[in-house]
Amino acid sequence: MAQFQQMMRQQLETSMHTELEKLLDTTTEAEREVFKKDSEGFTNLFHRFLQVKGPSVEWIKIQRPPEDSIQPYDKIAARGLPDNVADSLNKLVVVKLNGGLGTSMGCKGPKSLISVRNENTFLDLTVQQIEHLNKTYNTDVPLVLMNSFNTDEDTNKILQKYTHHRVKIHTFNQSRYPRINKESLLPVATNLGQNTEGWYPPGHGDIYASFYNSGLLDQLIKQGKEYIFVSNIDNLGATVDLHILHHLVSQSNSKRCEFIMEVTDKTRADVKGGTLIEYEGKLRLLEIAQVPKAHVDEFKSVTKFKIFNTNNLWISLAAIKRLQEQKAMDLEIIVNPKTLDGGQNVIQLETAVGAAIKCFDNAMGINVPRSRFLPVKTTSDLLLVMSNLYSLDAGCLTMSPKREFPTTPHVKLGSSFTKVQEYLIRFESIPDMLELDHLTVSGDVTFGKNVSVKGTVIIIANHGDRIDIPAGSMLENKIVSGNLRILDH
C-alpha cells in the first residue's frame, strides 16, 4: 500500500511539473524569471502537501510555553528608553501586508485604500505614523508594502501622492501560485495571462521567499537595517513600539532574539486565533486548522490557551537571509478550499508568516495590551474606529480618555450594513459611543445625526419593515424592534 501511494505521489508530481512547464510557455520574456521562482516555491509546497496526511501536530506533545518565553509588555516597557532612540529606529524597517482586496466589505481594489477615518485610508494612516517618527527623531525608517498581483497596480498608482512625505516607500510582490483542481490535483489555469481566477497569492507566510527573491532584503541589509516590524495593514493598533524595538537591539549578540510575536489575552471573540505552544522543545504557533477535530473545543478554551497571535511580528533581516539560503524555513501548510464562480472546487496551498517562529533562534512572545490589536475586517469594526471612542493623532488611533472603561464595545451590524457604501448611507453621522457596551443592529435601520448609544442597545427591524432612529436620539439600555418608522426619544 505504501509503495502504491508513493507511486501515486510521484505520478501527481510529474503531471504537475508538465502542467507548470506548459504555463511557463505562455509567459512573456519579462514574466519568465519571476514565474520560474514562483514555480519553484509552489513545487516545493505541493511536494510537501502530498507527503503530509492528517493534522500536523500530535496533541499529546503539546506543552504550555515556558514562563520566560512569553514576557508581559509592562516588564519590557519598565526598562525605559535609551537617549539614542534614533539609533534603534535607523535599524528598523516597517513592513505592511498589503495583498488583500476590500471585497468582503463590498469594495473594489486594495483594502488598504478604503477610507477609515476623516477621509484617511489605511495606507494614509500608515504613512502618517512613520513620517511622524522620522520627523520627531530625525530618522530614516522606510515603509515596505508586500503587494499581491491583485493589489500591486492600484497601490503603485496611489504611492505617487506620498512623493513629498518624509518616508521612503518600497514595494515587492508576493508569489502567484496556481489554484489546484480538488479532484485532479492539477492547475485550473491554462495560461499566465488569463483572468485572476486561476491564481492566488499563497498567504502571508510567503513573505520570506518573495522578500528574499525581490532583492530588497539584501538592499536593506546593506543600508544597515537589522529588523522588520511586520503587521497586517488593516490592524490600526500595529504602530511602531519603541520599547519592543529597544528590547531587540539592546541584547548581546550571543542571546540576540531573532523573532518576537506580539500576543494578547484571548476573549470569547478570539477563540479561533492561533496561539503559542511549546512543541518538541521549540516555541511554535498552533493554528486551528492544525488541531485534530477531537481537540478543537479544547483549543478554543480561554482557560487552557489564554493568548492569541496578533500577527504583529518583529523579525531579524539577517536571520531571514540565513534561513532562506539554508532552505530551512519549514512552515506548516494551510489547505484552503474554495469554490470558483463556475462552481468548480479548488484548493489553495498557503502558509502563515507567524508559523516561522520555530525556525528562529531565541524567539519569544510579548503579551501586549489589547490596544495593539485593532483590526478592521468588517463594517462593525469600521463603526468603532470612525467613532468618538478613538482620537486620531499623527496617524495613530488611541482610545479616548473620556471613556471610563478601556475595553472595546461589542458591535454587530447586520447584513444590510455589510458593504461600506450601504453602511455609510445608513448613518447621517457616526453615533456617540463613549458609554456603549454592546450594539446589535439587524434589518433595515437608519441613524439620524447626533444619535448617542449607551449600555446595551439592540435594534431589530423585521423583514419588510424599517426603523429610522431620529436625529438627536439617546438610546440607553434599549431594545427596539418591530416596524416603527420613528422612535420616540
Can you walk through the features of this model?
The chain is 27% helix and 26% strand. The chain contains 13 helices and 26 strands. The strands form eight sheets. The chain has an eight-stranded mixed β-sheet, with helices on both faces. Strand 19 and strand 20 form a beta hairpin. Helix 1 packs antiparallel against helix 2.
Q: Any key phrases for this structure?
A:
alpha/beta, eight-stranded mixed beta sheet, 13 helices, globular, disordered C terminus
Low-confidence stretches: 484-489
What is the alpha-carbon Rg in Å? 24 Å
Coarse shape: globular
The tally of helices reads 13
Question: What is the compact description of this entry?
Answer:
With 489 residues, the protein is an alpha/beta fold.
How is the secondary structure organized here?
Blueprint: H1 2-24, H2 29-51, E1 62-63, E2 70-72, H3 73-77, H4 85-89, E3 92-98, E4 115-117, E5 120-121, H5 122-137, E6 143-147, H6 152-159, E7 169-173, E8 177-178, E9 180-181, E10 199-200, H7 207-214, H8 216-222, E11 227-232, H9 242-249, E12 259-265, E13 275-279, E14 282-286, H10 296-300, E15 307-316, H11 317-325, E16 334-339, E17 345-350, E18 364-367, H12 379-386, E19 390-393, E20 396-399, E21 410-413, H13 420-426, E22 436-442, E23 444-447, E24 452-461, E25 466-469, E26 474-482
Parallel strand pairs: 2-18, 3-6, 3-11, 6-7, 12-18, 21-22, 22-24, 23-25, 24-26
Antiparallel strand pairs: 1-13, 4-5, 8-10, 9-17, 11-15, 12-15, 13-14, 16-17, 19-20
Helix pairs in contact: 1-2
